[in-house]
Design the sequence.
């Protein structure tokens, strides 16, 4: 059985490696550099080991390509492409549309199409299926299903095998074939009544986190105004053995899911005349945290950052990964530069970003910790500048949220 997986990023490559243990996988990506790198057995993401990739290549069970013609005789295709926001922070389905066009124009026999890309309820039924049919030259009758991705970059305890997987097809046959596929490398599969339920569940998972992170970020501001430690208050609340789940404050939210998925849910809610008050406000609170952090730093430094050298420590969106998608560090750096600060950043895990390279962890007037990787010593952070503001709660002795 030959599987085509469109998109070889965090989701697509992860699925490629797990599926490649049982099927022949063709990993399609439009980025030729990624394709060439993968075919040399070099993984570009956390969670996928290069040696595992090389083993699959050697066994003839994985091949990356940027040629759409290689998808012509696949038996099953997985869509695993980004679903970002537009400049106006509205849902952007252009990558899904491009994937559908690729399937419609190149697949030459009926296949099962599974969407793993996160999007609003109705995407599979009302967008993916019609777009593929629109571009299909031979009017093939494909099967369609959804199984939203659950990939957490850099996480070691949960992976594709032991993370429960939701799925639903547009038809019973599509659901059965979807289960047959994922059951080869997933321990627990949870069928829901419709693709819309699966799509909504995925959005709500991350909306839940967005809203609670916004709540704790707002609480951090309240705690500071009251002159108490937000971290001590949270630890105290966390002693309650029921009815409480601890979230920690930060400079904002990052990654591909939490800053984006709630907007997809809010957009479809408002389209159907339902309120999305908490969701929209949570988005605002988390986006505004970067300004609050810089306000605090500026206030602590004489109310003026003009010409001051500021080192941002950690630009990845979470510890111990090189992923900078939607990182809060970007907004913090923008606010700093808008106020005249001379900004550099230190993150050896990321290495290079936006044409810049990681600066030494020393010699700044001000250091602002956005992400604390395990490989970075907190004493080195404290020695990097006479004033250190820590948004993570992990650098003892620094000024904090």
Sequence:
């Amino acid at each position: 059985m030959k599987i085509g997986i469109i998109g070889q990023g965090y989701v697509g490559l992860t699925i490629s490696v797990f599926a490649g243990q049982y099927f022949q996988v063709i990993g399609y990506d439009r980025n030729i550099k990624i394709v060439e790198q993968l075919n040399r057995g070099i993984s570009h993401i956390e969670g996928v080991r290069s040696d595992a990739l090389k083993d699959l290549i050697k066994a003839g069970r994985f091949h990356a390509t940027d040629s759409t013609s290689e998808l012509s005789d696949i038996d099953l295709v997985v869509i695993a492409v980004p679903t970002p926001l537009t400049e106006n922070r509205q849902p952007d389905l252009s990558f899904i549309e491009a994937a559908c066009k690729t399937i419609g124009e190149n697949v030459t026999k009926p296949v099962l199409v599974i969407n793993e890309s996160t999007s609003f309820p109705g995407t599979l039924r009302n967008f993916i299926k019609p777009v593929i049919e629109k571009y299909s030259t031979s009017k093939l009758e494909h099967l369609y299903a959804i199984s939203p991705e659950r990939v957490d970059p850099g996480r070691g305890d949960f992976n594709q095998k032991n993370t429960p997987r939701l799925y639903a097809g547009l038809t019973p046959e599509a659901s059965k074939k979807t289960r047959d596929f994922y059951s080869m490398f997933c321990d627990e599969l949870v069928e829901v009544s419709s693709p819309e339920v699966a799509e909504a569940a995925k959005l709500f998972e991350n909306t839940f986190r967005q809203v609670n992170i916004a709540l704790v970020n707002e609480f951090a501001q309240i705690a500071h105004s009251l002159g108490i430690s937000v971290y001590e208050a949270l630890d105290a609340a966390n002693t309650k053995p029921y009815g409480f789940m601890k979230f920690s404050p930060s400079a904002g939210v990052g990654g591909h899911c939490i800053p984006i998925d709630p907007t997809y849910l809010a957009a479809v809610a408002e389209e159907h005349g339902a309120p999305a008050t908490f969701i929209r406000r949570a988005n605002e609170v988390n986006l505004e945290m970067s300004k609050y952090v810089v306000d605090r730093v500026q206030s602590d430094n004489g109310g003026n950052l003009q010409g001051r050298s500021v080192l941002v420590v950690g630009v990845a969106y979470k510890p111990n990964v090189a992923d900078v998608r939607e990182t809060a560090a970007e907004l913090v750096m923008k606010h700093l530069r808008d106020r005249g600060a001379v900004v550099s950043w230190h993150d050896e895990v990321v290495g290079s970003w936006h044409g810049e390279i990681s600066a030494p962890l020393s010699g700044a007037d001000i250091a602002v910790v956005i992400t604390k990787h395990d490989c970075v010593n907190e004493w080195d952070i404290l020695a990097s500048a006479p004033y250190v503001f820590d948004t993570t709660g992990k650098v003892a002795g620094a000024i904090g949220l």
